[in-house]
Fold this sequence. Notes:
Elements (H helix, E strand, L loop, with lengths): L16 E6 L21 H7 L7 E6 L14 E4 L6 H13 L3 E5 L1 H5 L1 H5 L4 E4 L5 H11 L5 E3 L26 E2 L2 E3 L9 H4 L6 E3 L2 H9 L5 E4 L8 H11 L5 E6 L1 H5 L3 H7 L2 E9 L3 H6 L10 H10 L3 E8 L8 H11 L4 E6 L7 H8 L25 H15 L2 H9 L4 H16 L1 H9 L3 H13 L8 E4 L8 E4 L1
Helix pairs in contact: 7-8, 8-10, 13-15, 16-17
Bound molecules: cobalamin and iron/sulfur cluster.
Cobalamin binds next to helix 1, strand 4, helix 3 and helix 5.
Amino acid sequence: MTSAVVPHPVSSIQGMRVTMVLPALTEATSPLFRPVKYALFPPLGLATLAGYLGDDDEVRIWDEHVQRLRLDDDRPDLAVIQPYITSARRAYELADAYRSRGVYVVMGGLHVTSLPDEAAAHADTVVTGPGEDTWPEFLADFRRGWPRARYHSTQRTLTDLPPVRRDLIDRRRYLVPNSIVVSRGCPHHCDFCYKDAFFAGGRSFYTQTVDAALAEIDRLPGRHLYFLDDHLLGNRRFAEALFAGMAGMGRLWQAAGTVDSVLAPGLLEQAVAAGLRSLFVGFETINGGNLAGQRKRQNIGRDYAAVVRRLHDQGVMVNASFVFGMDEDGPDVFDRTVDWAVEQGIETATFHIMTPYPGTGLYRRIAAEGRILHQDWDRYDTRHVVYRPMGMSARQLEDGYWRAYRDFYRWSAIWRGAATKPLPRDRLRHLTYAGGWKKFEPLWDLAIRTRQVTRVLPLLETLLGSYGARAAPKARPVEGPGSRRFELHG
Ligand code: B12
Ligand code: SF4
Protein backbone atom coordinates (compact mmCIF):
# COMPACT_ATOMS: atom_id res chain seq x y z
CA MET A 1 0.00 0.00 0.00
CA THR A 2 1.19 3.57 -0.53
CA SER A 3 1.49 6.21 2.09
CA ALA A 4 3.56 9.28 2.86
CA VAL A 5 7.23 8.70 3.57
CA VAL A 6 8.68 10.12 6.77
CA PRO A 7 12.37 10.83 6.10
CA HIS A 8 14.27 9.77 9.17
CA PRO A 9 17.97 9.16 8.77
CA VAL A 10 19.28 6.74 11.39
CA SER A 11 22.96 6.77 12.20
CA SER A 12 23.60 3.12 11.50
CA ILE A 13 21.60 0.26 10.08
CA GLN A 14 22.62 -2.15 12.82
CA GLY A 15 22.76 -1.69 16.56
CA MET A 16 19.63 0.39 17.14
CA ARG A 17 18.43 1.22 20.62
CA VAL A 18 14.75 0.31 20.85
CA THR A 19 12.35 0.89 23.74
CA MET A 20 9.03 -0.94 23.60
CA VAL A 21 6.29 0.27 25.92
CA LEU A 22 3.00 -1.19 27.09
CA PRO A 23 1.40 1.86 28.75
CA ALA A 24 -0.93 1.35 31.68
CA LEU A 25 -4.15 2.95 32.75
CA THR A 26 -3.89 4.87 35.99
CA GLU A 27 -5.38 2.33 38.38
CA ALA A 28 -2.78 -0.24 37.36
CA THR A 29 0.05 1.98 38.57
CA SER A 30 -1.20 2.81 42.06
CA PRO A 31 1.61 2.52 44.62
CA LEU A 32 -0.87 1.14 47.19
CA PHE A 33 -2.98 -1.46 45.52
CA ARG A 34 -3.35 -2.53 41.96
CA PRO A 35 -5.89 -5.15 40.87
CA VAL A 36 -3.89 -8.31 40.34
CA LYS A 37 -5.22 -8.77 36.81
CA TYR A 38 -2.76 -6.13 35.63
CA ALA A 39 0.13 -8.31 36.72
CA LEU A 40 -1.20 -11.52 35.27
CA PHE A 41 0.36 -11.64 31.82
CA PRO A 42 3.57 -10.22 30.33
CA PRO A 43 3.43 -8.05 27.16
CA LEU A 44 3.35 -10.87 24.67
CA GLY A 45 2.62 -8.69 21.63
CA LEU A 46 5.74 -6.57 22.18
CA ALA A 47 7.90 -9.61 22.96
CA THR A 48 6.64 -11.12 19.68
CA LEU A 49 7.64 -7.98 17.75
CA ALA A 50 11.02 -7.87 19.53
CA GLY A 51 11.77 -11.24 17.93
CA TYR A 52 12.19 -9.44 14.60
CA LEU A 53 14.97 -7.19 15.85
CA GLY A 54 18.61 -8.03 15.24
CA ASP A 55 21.12 -9.54 17.68
CA ASP A 56 23.02 -6.29 17.90
CA ASP A 57 19.97 -4.13 18.49
CA GLU A 58 19.63 -3.08 22.12
CA VAL A 59 16.01 -3.73 23.06
CA ARG A 60 14.05 -3.33 26.25
CA ILE A 61 10.41 -3.80 27.06
CA TRP A 62 8.74 -1.59 29.64
CA ASP A 63 5.41 -2.78 31.01
CA GLU A 64 4.00 0.15 32.89
CA HIS A 65 1.54 -2.13 34.67
CA VAL A 66 4.37 -3.56 36.73
CA GLN A 67 7.29 -1.12 36.49
CA ARG A 68 7.80 2.62 36.54
CA LEU A 69 8.94 4.00 33.21
CA ARG A 70 12.10 6.12 33.55
CA LEU A 71 11.28 8.35 30.66
CA ASP A 72 13.77 11.13 31.34
CA ASP A 73 16.84 8.92 30.91
CA ASP A 74 15.51 7.29 27.81
CA ARG A 75 16.54 8.44 24.31
CA PRO A 76 16.29 5.40 22.06
CA ASP A 77 16.48 5.44 18.27
CA LEU A 78 12.98 4.03 18.18
CA ALA A 79 10.08 3.98 20.63
CA VAL A 80 7.44 1.30 19.98
CA ILE A 81 4.16 1.87 21.78
CA GLN A 82 1.14 -0.44 22.02
CA PRO A 83 -2.00 1.32 23.28
CA TYR A 84 -5.18 -0.45 24.30
CA ILE A 85 -8.27 1.71 24.33
CA THR A 86 -8.10 2.31 28.09
CA SER A 87 -4.43 3.22 27.99
CA ALA A 88 -4.63 5.33 24.82
CA ARG A 89 -4.46 8.66 26.68
CA ARG A 90 -1.34 7.59 28.55
CA ALA A 91 0.13 6.09 25.37
CA TYR A 92 -0.28 9.42 23.54
CA GLU A 93 1.27 11.29 26.48
CA LEU A 94 4.33 9.04 26.33
CA ALA A 95 4.50 9.26 22.55
CA ASP A 96 4.40 13.07 22.68
CA ALA A 97 7.14 13.10 25.31
CA TYR A 98 9.41 10.86 23.21
CA ARG A 99 8.78 12.88 20.07
CA SER A 100 9.45 16.18 21.82
CA ARG A 101 13.03 15.00 22.31
CA GLY A 102 13.42 13.78 18.76
CA VAL A 103 12.75 10.07 19.29
CA TYR A 104 10.96 8.34 16.41
CA VAL A 105 7.67 6.83 17.58
CA VAL A 106 5.83 3.93 15.99
CA MET A 107 2.46 2.79 17.31
CA GLY A 108 0.32 -0.21 16.53
CA GLY A 109 -2.12 -2.73 17.94
CA LEU A 110 -5.86 -2.85 18.56
CA HIS A 111 -6.74 0.72 19.41
CA VAL A 112 -4.51 2.17 16.71
CA THR A 113 -6.21 -0.10 14.19
CA SER A 114 -9.64 1.14 15.29
CA LEU A 115 -8.65 4.80 15.18
CA PRO A 116 -5.50 5.26 13.07
CA ASP A 117 -6.06 8.98 12.51
CA GLU A 118 -6.32 9.65 16.23
CA ALA A 119 -3.06 7.76 16.83
CA ALA A 120 -1.32 9.39 13.87
CA ALA A 121 -1.46 12.75 15.65
CA HIS A 122 0.98 11.32 18.21
CA ALA A 123 3.19 8.97 16.17
CA ASP A 124 5.60 9.18 13.25
CA THR A 125 4.31 5.86 11.94
CA VAL A 126 1.13 3.96 12.70
CA VAL A 127 0.77 0.29 11.87
CA THR A 128 -2.68 -1.26 11.65
CA GLY A 129 -3.67 -4.92 11.99
CA PRO A 130 -1.45 -7.77 13.18
CA GLY A 131 2.27 -7.03 12.96
CA GLU A 132 3.81 -10.15 11.44
CA ASP A 133 3.99 -8.77 7.89
CA THR A 134 4.08 -5.00 8.40
CA TRP A 135 6.52 -4.82 11.29
CA PRO A 136 9.49 -6.39 9.45
CA GLU A 137 8.64 -4.18 6.49
CA PHE A 138 8.62 -1.09 8.68
CA LEU A 139 11.91 -2.10 10.29
CA ALA A 140 13.60 -2.54 6.94
CA ASP A 141 12.33 0.88 5.79
CA PHE A 142 13.34 2.48 9.07
CA ARG A 143 16.85 1.09 8.86
CA ARG A 144 17.11 2.46 5.31
CA GLY A 145 15.99 5.83 6.69
CA TRP A 146 12.68 5.96 4.79
CA PRO A 147 9.85 4.66 6.94
CA ARG A 148 6.32 5.38 5.75
CA ALA A 149 3.69 7.09 7.88
CA ARG A 150 1.23 4.18 7.58
CA TYR A 151 1.42 0.43 7.16
CA HIS A 152 -1.55 -1.91 6.99
CA SER A 153 -1.30 -5.67 7.30
CA THR A 154 -2.74 -7.79 4.49
CA GLN A 155 -0.56 -10.93 4.46
CA ARG A 156 -1.72 -13.00 7.40
CA THR A 157 0.46 -15.93 8.31
CA LEU A 158 2.17 -17.32 11.38
CA THR A 159 4.66 -19.52 9.56
CA ASP A 160 8.39 -18.98 10.15
CA LEU A 161 7.92 -16.60 13.08
CA PRO A 162 11.10 -15.76 14.98
CA PRO A 163 11.00 -16.97 18.59
CA VAL A 164 9.17 -14.67 21.01
CA ARG A 165 11.81 -12.69 22.98
CA ARG A 166 10.77 -13.97 26.40
CA ASP A 167 14.29 -13.22 27.64
CA LEU A 168 13.23 -9.53 27.70
CA ILE A 169 10.48 -10.28 30.22
CA ASP A 170 11.11 -10.38 33.96
CA ARG A 171 9.07 -13.47 34.82
CA ARG A 172 9.05 -12.65 38.54
CA ARG A 173 6.75 -9.72 37.93
CA TYR A 174 3.86 -11.83 36.61
CA LEU A 175 1.47 -14.30 38.12
CA VAL A 176 1.15 -16.14 34.80
CA PRO A 177 4.49 -15.72 33.01
CA ASN A 178 3.78 -18.56 30.57
CA SER A 179 1.11 -16.90 28.45
CA ILE A 180 1.14 -18.07 24.87
CA VAL A 181 -0.81 -17.63 21.62
CA VAL A 182 -0.67 -20.17 18.82
CA SER A 183 -3.39 -18.70 16.60
CA ARG A 184 -4.80 -15.29 15.76
CA GLY A 185 -8.44 -14.25 15.63
CA CYS A 186 -11.50 -16.45 15.65
CA PRO A 187 -13.92 -18.01 13.15
CA HIS A 188 -16.94 -16.15 14.58
CA HIS A 189 -18.19 -12.58 14.06
CA CYS A 190 -19.76 -11.26 17.26
CA ASP A 191 -20.98 -7.72 16.92
CA PHE A 192 -19.26 -6.34 20.04
CA CYS A 193 -15.89 -7.97 19.49
CA TYR A 194 -12.68 -6.21 18.42
CA LYS A 195 -11.93 -9.02 16.00
CA ASP A 196 -13.52 -8.06 12.69
CA ALA A 197 -12.19 -4.52 12.85
CA PHE A 198 -8.67 -5.60 13.76
CA PHE A 199 -8.41 -8.24 11.05
CA ALA A 200 -10.18 -6.26 8.29
CA GLY A 201 -8.45 -6.56 4.91
CA GLY A 202 -7.18 -10.12 5.32
CA ARG A 203 -7.73 -13.45 7.01
CA SER A 204 -9.27 -13.21 10.47
CA PHE A 205 -8.53 -16.67 11.81
CA TYR A 206 -5.28 -18.56 11.27
CA THR A 207 -2.95 -20.73 13.27
CA GLN A 208 0.72 -21.55 13.65
CA THR A 209 1.85 -24.91 12.35
CA VAL A 210 1.33 -27.57 15.00
CA ASP A 211 5.07 -28.26 15.15
CA ALA A 212 5.88 -24.59 15.72
CA ALA A 213 3.23 -24.36 18.44
CA LEU A 214 4.60 -27.45 20.19
CA ALA A 215 8.14 -26.10 19.95
CA GLU A 216 6.99 -22.82 21.54
CA ILE A 217 5.30 -24.74 24.35
CA ASP A 218 8.43 -26.78 24.83
CA ARG A 219 10.49 -23.63 25.32
CA LEU A 220 8.41 -22.58 28.33
CA PRO A 221 9.67 -23.62 31.76
CA GLY A 222 7.47 -25.05 34.55
CA ARG A 223 4.14 -26.81 34.02
CA HIS A 224 1.51 -24.09 33.82
CA LEU A 225 0.45 -22.42 30.55
CA TYR A 226 -2.23 -19.89 29.74
CA PHE A 227 -3.34 -19.82 26.10
CA LEU A 228 -4.50 -16.28 25.27
CA ASP A 229 -5.89 -17.34 21.90
CA ASP A 230 -9.35 -15.93 21.27
CA HIS A 231 -10.62 -19.42 20.56
CA LEU A 232 -8.09 -22.21 20.95
CA LEU A 233 -10.70 -24.78 19.95
CA GLY A 234 -11.82 -22.82 16.86
CA ASN A 235 -10.06 -24.99 14.24
CA ARG A 236 -10.82 -28.58 15.14
CA ARG A 237 -8.09 -30.17 13.03
CA PHE A 238 -5.43 -27.89 14.43
CA ALA A 239 -6.69 -28.29 18.00
CA GLU A 240 -6.78 -32.08 17.79
CA ALA A 241 -3.25 -32.27 16.41
CA LEU A 242 -2.01 -29.81 19.02
CA PHE A 243 -3.61 -31.75 21.88
CA ALA A 244 -2.25 -35.02 20.54
CA GLY A 245 1.23 -33.47 20.56
CA MET A 246 0.77 -32.07 24.04
CA ALA A 247 -0.55 -35.27 25.59
CA GLY A 248 2.26 -36.62 27.74
CA MET A 249 4.06 -33.26 28.06
CA GLY A 250 2.82 -32.94 31.63
CA ARG A 251 1.42 -29.45 31.11
CA LEU A 252 -1.50 -27.93 33.01
CA TRP A 253 -3.21 -25.18 31.14
CA GLN A 254 -6.04 -22.71 30.90
CA ALA A 255 -7.60 -21.26 27.76
CA ALA A 256 -10.70 -19.70 26.21
CA GLY A 257 -13.34 -21.47 24.15
CA THR A 258 -16.92 -21.01 22.97
CA VAL A 259 -20.02 -22.86 24.18
CA ASP A 260 -20.42 -24.73 20.87
CA SER A 261 -16.84 -25.99 20.98
CA VAL A 262 -17.38 -27.34 24.51
CA LEU A 263 -20.43 -29.25 23.32
CA ALA A 264 -18.65 -30.64 20.24
CA PRO A 265 -18.26 -34.38 20.81
CA GLY A 266 -14.73 -35.57 21.60
CA LEU A 267 -12.74 -32.33 21.41
CA LEU A 268 -12.99 -31.41 25.07
CA GLU A 269 -11.85 -34.89 26.11
CA GLN A 270 -8.71 -34.49 24.00
CA ALA A 271 -8.04 -31.06 25.50
CA VAL A 272 -8.35 -32.50 29.00
CA ALA A 273 -6.01 -35.36 28.19
CA ALA A 274 -3.51 -32.71 27.06
CA GLY A 275 -3.80 -30.85 30.38
CA LEU A 276 -6.75 -28.42 30.12
CA ARG A 277 -7.94 -27.59 33.65
CA SER A 278 -9.86 -24.33 33.36
CA LEU A 279 -11.73 -22.73 30.47
CA PHE A 280 -12.85 -19.14 29.99
CA VAL A 281 -16.26 -19.42 28.31
CA GLY A 282 -18.09 -16.51 26.69
CA PHE A 283 -21.67 -17.15 27.82
CA GLU A 284 -22.20 -13.37 27.52
CA THR A 285 -25.88 -13.34 28.46
CA ILE A 286 -28.56 -15.58 29.88
CA ASN A 287 -31.19 -13.61 27.92
CA GLY A 288 -31.55 -15.57 24.68
CA GLY A 289 -33.01 -12.53 22.86
CA ASN A 290 -29.70 -10.66 23.21
CA LEU A 291 -27.73 -13.24 21.28
CA ALA A 292 -29.29 -12.60 17.88
CA GLY A 293 -28.93 -8.84 18.40
CA GLN A 294 -25.17 -9.30 18.98
CA ARG A 295 -24.71 -11.82 16.14
CA LYS A 296 -23.50 -14.30 18.76
CA ARG A 297 -24.92 -17.09 16.62
CA GLN A 298 -22.79 -19.89 18.00
CA ASN A 299 -24.51 -19.45 21.40
CA ILE A 300 -28.11 -19.33 20.20
CA GLY A 301 -30.25 -22.19 21.46
CA ARG A 302 -27.38 -23.81 23.38
CA ASP A 303 -28.01 -25.43 26.72
CA TYR A 304 -25.68 -23.42 28.94
CA ALA A 305 -26.23 -25.71 31.94
CA ALA A 306 -25.10 -28.65 29.80
CA VAL A 307 -21.93 -26.73 28.91
CA VAL A 308 -21.04 -26.25 32.57
CA ARG A 309 -21.95 -29.85 33.43
CA ARG A 310 -19.82 -31.20 30.63
CA LEU A 311 -16.81 -29.13 31.71
CA HIS A 312 -17.21 -30.13 35.34
CA ASP A 313 -17.65 -33.79 34.43
CA GLN A 314 -14.30 -33.59 32.69
CA GLY A 315 -12.72 -31.91 35.70
CA VAL A 316 -12.40 -28.50 34.02
CA MET A 317 -13.09 -25.36 36.06
CA VAL A 318 -15.25 -22.71 34.45
CA ASN A 319 -14.45 -19.00 34.20
CA ALA A 320 -17.73 -17.66 32.87
CA SER A 321 -17.83 -14.34 31.06
CA PHE A 322 -21.03 -12.26 31.10
CA VAL A 323 -21.92 -8.92 29.55
CA PHE A 324 -24.60 -6.69 31.10
CA GLY A 325 -26.57 -3.95 29.39
CA MET A 326 -27.53 -5.55 26.09
CA ASP A 327 -30.79 -4.27 24.70
CA GLU A 328 -32.99 -7.04 26.17
CA ASP A 329 -31.53 -6.65 29.68
CA GLY A 330 -33.69 -5.14 32.41
CA PRO A 331 -32.75 -4.43 36.04
CA ASP A 332 -33.38 -8.07 36.99
CA VAL A 333 -30.51 -9.34 34.82
CA PHE A 334 -27.85 -9.06 37.54
CA ASP A 335 -29.52 -11.22 40.18
CA ARG A 336 -30.68 -13.73 37.61
CA THR A 337 -27.21 -14.09 36.13
CA VAL A 338 -25.46 -14.41 39.48
CA ASP A 339 -28.03 -16.89 40.79
CA TRP A 340 -27.70 -18.98 37.67
CA ALA A 341 -23.89 -18.98 37.82
CA VAL A 342 -23.82 -19.88 41.52
CA GLU A 343 -26.38 -22.65 41.04
CA GLN A 344 -24.25 -24.17 38.29
CA GLY A 345 -21.22 -24.28 40.60
CA ILE A 346 -19.24 -22.01 38.28
CA GLU A 347 -15.89 -21.35 39.97
CA THR A 348 -15.04 -17.86 38.71
CA ALA A 349 -16.99 -15.27 36.75
CA THR A 350 -15.97 -12.16 34.86
CA PHE A 351 -18.64 -9.52 34.41
CA HIS A 352 -18.56 -6.66 31.93
CA ILE A 353 -20.72 -3.69 31.14
CA MET A 354 -21.37 -3.79 27.42
CA THR A 355 -18.84 -1.48 25.77
CA PRO A 356 -19.07 -0.42 22.14
CA TYR A 357 -15.43 -0.34 21.01
CA PRO A 358 -14.80 1.96 18.06
CA GLY A 359 -14.55 -0.01 14.84
CA THR A 360 -17.03 -2.69 15.91
CA GLY A 361 -20.48 -3.33 14.48
CA LEU A 362 -21.90 -2.60 17.91
CA TYR A 363 -20.31 0.85 17.95
CA ARG A 364 -21.70 1.67 14.52
CA ARG A 365 -25.21 0.58 15.53
CA ILE A 366 -25.26 2.41 18.87
CA ALA A 367 -23.73 5.53 17.30
CA ALA A 368 -26.32 5.47 14.49
CA GLU A 369 -29.02 5.35 17.16
CA GLY A 370 -27.45 8.39 18.83
CA ARG A 371 -26.82 6.46 22.06
CA ILE A 372 -23.06 6.97 22.52
CA LEU A 373 -22.66 9.19 25.61
CA HIS A 374 -19.03 10.24 25.22
CA GLN A 375 -15.68 9.26 23.76
CA ASP A 376 -13.61 9.37 26.90
CA TRP A 377 -11.63 6.19 26.14
CA ASP A 378 -10.39 5.96 29.74
CA ARG A 379 -13.88 4.92 30.70
CA TYR A 380 -14.29 2.35 27.92
CA ASP A 381 -13.06 -0.19 30.43
CA THR A 382 -16.20 -2.38 30.68
CA ARG A 383 -16.86 -0.98 34.16
CA HIS A 384 -18.41 2.31 33.11
CA VAL A 385 -21.53 2.91 31.06
CA VAL A 386 -20.56 4.80 27.93
CA TYR A 387 -23.85 4.52 26.01
CA ARG A 388 -27.55 4.93 26.76
CA PRO A 389 -28.92 1.50 27.68
CA MET A 390 -32.43 0.45 26.58
CA GLY A 391 -33.84 -1.51 29.52
CA MET A 392 -32.55 0.45 32.51
CA SER A 393 -30.75 3.63 33.45
CA ALA A 394 -26.97 4.00 33.24
CA ARG A 395 -26.91 4.24 37.03
CA GLN A 396 -28.81 1.00 37.46
CA LEU A 397 -26.44 -0.69 35.05
CA GLU A 398 -23.27 0.40 36.85
CA ASP A 399 -24.69 -0.35 40.30
CA GLY A 400 -25.93 -3.74 39.13
CA TYR A 401 -22.53 -4.58 37.66
CA TRP A 402 -20.70 -3.94 40.92
CA ARG A 403 -23.41 -5.76 42.88
CA ALA A 404 -23.00 -8.81 40.63
CA TYR A 405 -19.30 -9.02 41.52
CA ARG A 406 -20.02 -8.59 45.23
CA ASP A 407 -22.81 -11.15 45.20
CA PHE A 408 -20.95 -13.74 43.17
CA TYR A 409 -17.82 -13.56 45.34
CA ARG A 410 -19.56 -13.42 48.74
CA TRP A 411 -18.41 -16.27 50.96
CA SER A 412 -22.02 -17.44 51.18
CA ALA A 413 -22.22 -17.68 47.37
CA ILE A 414 -18.83 -19.37 47.16
CA TRP A 415 -20.06 -21.95 49.73
CA ARG A 416 -23.28 -22.40 47.79
CA GLY A 417 -21.36 -22.92 44.55
CA ALA A 418 -19.02 -25.38 46.26
CA ALA A 419 -21.99 -27.28 47.67
CA THR A 420 -23.16 -28.16 44.15
CA LYS A 421 -20.11 -30.41 43.81
CA PRO A 422 -20.79 -34.04 44.74
CA LEU A 423 -17.38 -34.91 46.27
CA PRO A 424 -15.83 -33.23 49.36
CA ARG A 425 -12.54 -32.98 47.44
CA ASP A 426 -14.25 -31.01 44.67
CA ARG A 427 -15.97 -28.74 47.18
CA LEU A 428 -12.67 -27.94 48.83
CA ARG A 429 -11.06 -27.15 45.48
CA HIS A 430 -13.92 -24.84 44.56
CA LEU A 431 -13.51 -22.98 47.85
CA THR A 432 -9.76 -22.69 47.46
CA TYR A 433 -9.83 -21.51 43.87
CA ALA A 434 -12.80 -19.11 43.97
CA GLY A 435 -11.96 -17.80 47.45
CA GLY A 436 -8.21 -17.69 46.84
CA TRP A 437 -8.61 -15.66 43.68
CA LYS A 438 -10.87 -12.85 44.85
CA LYS A 439 -10.59 -12.82 48.64
CA PHE A 440 -6.81 -12.67 48.84
CA GLU A 441 -6.16 -10.24 46.01
CA PRO A 442 -4.00 -7.90 48.16
CA LEU A 443 -1.74 -10.85 48.99
CA TRP A 444 -1.29 -11.66 45.33
CA ASP A 445 -0.41 -8.02 44.75
CA LEU A 446 2.16 -8.13 47.56
CA ALA A 447 3.73 -11.31 46.17
CA ILE A 448 4.06 -9.65 42.78
CA ARG A 449 5.49 -6.41 44.14
CA THR A 450 8.09 -8.27 46.19
CA ARG A 451 8.81 -10.51 43.18
CA GLN A 452 7.97 -13.60 45.19
CA VAL A 453 5.29 -14.64 42.79
CA THR A 454 7.31 -17.49 41.29
CA ARG A 455 7.06 -19.10 44.73
CA VAL A 456 3.28 -18.94 44.54
CA LEU A 457 2.96 -20.44 41.06
CA PRO A 458 3.51 -24.03 42.27
CA LEU A 459 0.39 -23.59 44.45
CA LEU A 460 -1.67 -22.80 41.36
CA GLU A 461 -0.12 -25.74 39.56
CA THR A 462 -0.93 -28.06 42.47
CA LEU A 463 -4.50 -26.86 42.53
CA LEU A 464 -4.97 -27.18 38.79
CA GLY A 465 -3.17 -30.52 38.87
CA SER A 466 -5.74 -31.86 41.31
CA TYR A 467 -8.45 -31.24 38.72
CA GLY A 468 -8.97 -33.25 35.58
CA ALA A 469 -10.66 -36.52 34.78
CA ARG A 470 -7.28 -38.17 34.48
CA ALA A 471 -4.10 -37.16 36.29
CA ALA A 472 -1.57 -35.61 33.93
CA PRO A 473 1.85 -37.25 33.93
CA LYS A 474 4.44 -35.52 36.08
CA ALA A 475 7.04 -33.37 34.40
CA ARG A 476 10.58 -32.77 35.57
CA PRO A 477 12.78 -29.95 34.28
CA VAL A 478 15.90 -31.11 32.50
CA GLU A 479 19.02 -28.95 32.59
CA GLY A 480 21.11 -28.04 29.61
CA PRO A 481 20.69 -26.08 26.42
CA GLY A 482 19.11 -27.73 23.46
CA SER A 483 17.51 -30.49 25.49
CA ARG A 484 13.77 -30.88 25.81
CA ARG A 485 12.80 -29.07 28.96
CA PHE A 486 10.68 -31.90 30.27
CA GLU A 487 11.19 -35.54 30.70
CA LEU A 488 8.15 -37.60 31.29
CA HIS A 489 7.51 -39.98 34.11
CA GLY A 490 4.62 -42.36 34.50
C1 B12 B 1 -3.97 -10.62 27.86
C2 B12 B 1 -5.01 -9.54 27.72
C3 B12 B 1 -5.10 -8.59 28.74
C4 B12 B 1 -4.15 -8.58 29.92
C5 B12 B 1 -2.85 -7.79 29.72
C6 B12 B 1 -2.37 -7.53 28.37
C7 B12 B 1 -0.88 -7.67 28.19
N1 B12 B 1 -0.08 -7.80 29.23
O1 B12 B 1 -0.47 -7.63 27.05
C8 B12 B 1 -4.98 -7.85 31.01
C9 B12 B 1 -5.65 -8.90 31.84
C10 B12 B 1 -4.20 -6.91 31.90
C11 B12 B 1 -5.97 -7.12 30.15
C12 B12 B 1 -6.69 -6.07 30.64
C13 B12 B 1 -7.62 -5.39 29.92
N2 B12 B 1 -8.05 -5.70 28.69
CO1 B12 B 1 -7.32 -7.14 27.64
N3 B12 B 1 -6.83 -8.61 26.55
C14 B12 B 1 -5.88 -9.50 26.63
C15 B12 B 1 -6.00 -10.48 25.46
C16 B12 B 1 -6.83 -11.67 25.93
C17 B12 B 1 -4.72 -10.99 24.83
C18 B12 B 1 -3.69 -9.93 24.41
C19 B12 B 1 -2.50 -10.62 23.79
O2 B12 B 1 -1.51 -10.86 24.45
N4 B12 B 1 -2.59 -10.98 22.50
C20 B12 B 1 -1.57 -11.70 21.80
C21 B12 B 1 -0.52 -10.76 21.19
C22 B12 B 1 0.48 -11.54 20.37
O3 B12 B 1 -1.21 -9.89 20.33
P1 B12 B 1 -1.22 -8.29 20.50
O4 B12 B 1 -0.83 -7.92 21.87
O5 B12 B 1 -2.47 -7.78 19.97
O6 B12 B 1 -0.01 -7.83 19.52
C23 B12 B 1 -0.06 -8.05 18.12
C24 B12 B 1 -0.77 -6.97 17.30
O7 B12 B 1 -1.73 -6.24 18.00
C25 B12 B 1 0.31 -6.11 16.74
N5 B12 B 1 0.80 -4.98 17.53
C26 B12 B 1 0.58 -4.66 18.80
N6 B12 B 1 1.25 -3.55 19.14
C27 B12 B 1 1.94 -3.16 18.07
C28 B12 B 1 2.81 -2.10 17.88
C29 B12 B 1 3.41 -1.95 16.63
C30 B12 B 1 4.35 -0.83 16.40
C31 B12 B 1 3.14 -2.89 15.61
C32 B12 B 1 3.82 -2.79 14.31
C33 B12 B 1 2.26 -3.93 15.81
C34 B12 B 1 1.67 -4.06 17.04
O8 B12 B 1 1.37 -7.01 16.56
C35 B12 B 1 1.37 -8.01 17.61
C36 B12 B 1 1.77 -9.32 16.97
O9 B12 B 1 0.81 -9.67 15.98
C37 B12 B 1 -6.80 -9.59 24.44
C38 B12 B 1 -7.57 -10.35 23.38
C39 B12 B 1 -6.74 -10.47 22.12
N7 B12 B 1 -7.01 -11.48 21.40
O10 B12 B 1 -5.87 -9.68 21.81
C40 B12 B 1 -7.66 -8.74 25.36
C41 B12 B 1 -8.01 -7.32 24.93
C42 B12 B 1 -6.80 -6.69 24.34
N8 B12 B 1 -8.33 -6.65 26.18
C43 B12 B 1 -9.28 -5.77 26.08
C44 B12 B 1 -9.78 -4.99 27.15
C45 B12 B 1 -11.05 -4.23 26.86
C46 B12 B 1 -9.15 -4.97 28.38
C47 B12 B 1 -9.60 -4.18 29.61
C48 B12 B 1 -10.12 -2.79 29.39
C49 B12 B 1 -10.65 -5.07 30.27
C50 B12 B 1 -11.11 -4.64 31.62
N9 B12 B 1 -12.37 -4.66 31.80
O11 B12 B 1 -10.37 -4.33 32.49
C51 B12 B 1 -8.32 -4.19 30.47
C52 B12 B 1 -7.52 -2.92 30.34
C53 B12 B 1 -6.17 -3.06 29.76
C54 B12 B 1 -5.32 -1.81 29.90
N10 B12 B 1 -4.24 -1.87 30.63
O12 B12 B 1 -5.63 -0.76 29.40
C55 B12 B 1 -9.81 -5.71 24.67
C56 B12 B 1 -9.24 -4.47 23.95
C57 B12 B 1 -10.22 -3.65 23.20
C58 B12 B 1 -9.53 -2.48 22.56
N11 B12 B 1 -10.14 -2.04 21.47
O13 B12 B 1 -8.51 -1.97 22.96
C59 B12 B 1 -9.33 -7.10 24.11
C60 B12 B 1 -9.13 -7.12 22.60
C61 B12 B 1 -10.37 -8.14 24.54
C62 B12 B 1 -11.68 -8.04 23.79
N12 B12 B 1 -12.03 -9.05 23.03
O14 B12 B 1 -12.40 -7.07 23.89
N13 B12 B 1 -6.06 -7.65 28.91
S1 SF4 C 1 -16.39 -15.85 19.76
FE1 SF4 C 1 -15.23 -14.46 21.10
S2 SF4 C 1 -13.33 -13.92 19.98
FE2 SF4 C 1 -14.79 -14.85 18.52
S3 SF4 C 1 -15.81 -13.11 17.54
FE3 SF4 C 1 -17.10 -13.79 19.27
S4 SF4 C 1 -16.40 -12.57 21.05
FE4 SF4 C 1 -14.85 -12.36 19.43
